[in-house]
């Protein structure tokens, strides 16, 4: 199901070397509605899926269960037109900003998170400390433990 540019062109090596992939060669790809910030879904991309996404303007993912590429919307009509793609600071996640047509979730909901909130043990958060703003500077990296 290759409806994109020729597969004989590899992902730009400068991009490929920045990816921190799982042992299966995958990177998490978070799809977000570009104009509202709404988080739509989480998919997985390998280098080829990312290359197809960057060159076609349509979001392409790698299905771990089917072990094949799928371009969002080819069968459902619920396409994702890519507006931008960003790599996070650690290189282990992609943010794919899209214009979503129709449902993003295979269950038919707008997002894969609609109606799936988990209960908090303290819904009013009264016993939790206030969040601390950490400046986005090189010094801030020293204070993080999620590297």
From TrEMBL:
GO biological process: L-histidine biosynthetic process
GO terms of molecular function: magnesium ion binding; phosphoribosyl-AMP cyclohydrolase activity; phosphoribosyl-ATP diphosphatase activity; zinc ion binding
Gene3D superfamilies xrefs: Phosphoribosyl-AMP cyclohydrolase
Subcellular location, record wording: Cytoplasm
Binding positions for Zn(2+) per the UniProt entry: 89, 105, 112
Metabolic or biological pathway: Amino-acid biosynthesis; L-histidine biosynthesis; L-histidine from 5-phospho-alpha-D-ribose 1-diphosphate: step 3/9; Amino-acid biosynthesis; L-histidine biosynthesis; L-histidine from 5-phospho-alpha-D-ribose 1-diphosphate: step 2/9
Cofactor note: Binds 1 Mg(2+) ion per subunit.
Entry GO CC: cytoplasm
EC number(s) per entry: 3.5.4.19
UniProt keyword list: Amino-acid biosynthesis, Cytoplasm, Histidine biosynthesis, Hydrolase, Magnesium, Metal-binding, Zinc
Names of the cofactor(s): Mg(2+); Zn(2+)
Domain (Phosphoribosyl-AMP cyclohydrolase): residue spans on this chain: 41-113
Low complexity composition-biased segments: 131-140
Catalyzed reaction equations: 1-(5-phospho-beta-D-ribosyl)-5'-AMP + H2O = 1-(5-phospho-beta-D-ribosyl)-5-[(5-phospho-beta-D-ribosylamino)methylideneamino]imidazole-4-carboxamide; 1-(5-phospho-beta-D-ribosyl)-ATP + H2O = 1-(5-phospho-beta-D-ribosyl)-5'-AMP + diphosphate + H(+)
Ranges for region Disordered: 114-147
Keyword Cytoplasm: yes
Amino-acid positions noted as binding Mg(2+) in the UniProt annotation, renumbered to this chain: 88, 90, 92
NCBIfam families: PRK00051.1
Subunit field text: Homodimer.
Family that this chain belongs to: In the N-terminal section; belongs to the PRA-CH family. Belongs to the PRA-CH family.
Function: Catalyzes the hydrolysis of the adenine ring of phosphoribosyl-AMP.
Name of the featured protein: Phosphoribosyl-AMP cyclohydrolase
The organism of origin for this protein: Citricoccus muralis
């Amino acid at each position: 199901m290759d409806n994109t540019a020729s597969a004989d062109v590899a992902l730009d090596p400068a991009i490929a070397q920045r990816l921190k992939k799982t042992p299966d060669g995958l990177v998490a790809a978070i799809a977000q509605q570009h104009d509202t910030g709404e988080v739509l879904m989480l998919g997985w991309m390998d280098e080829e899926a990312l290359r197809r996404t960057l060159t076609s303007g349509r979001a392409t993912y790698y299905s771990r269960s089917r072990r094949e590429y799928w371009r969002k919307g080819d069968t459902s009509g619920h396409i994702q037109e890519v507006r931008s793609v960003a790599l996070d600071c650690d290189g282990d996640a992609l943010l794919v900003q899209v214009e979503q047509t129709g449902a993003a979730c295979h269950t038919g909901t707008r997002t894969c998170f609609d109606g799936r909130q988990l209960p908090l043990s303290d819904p009013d958060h009264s016993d939790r400390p206030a969040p601390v703003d950490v400046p986005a500077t090189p010094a801030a990296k020293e204070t993080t433990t999620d590297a």
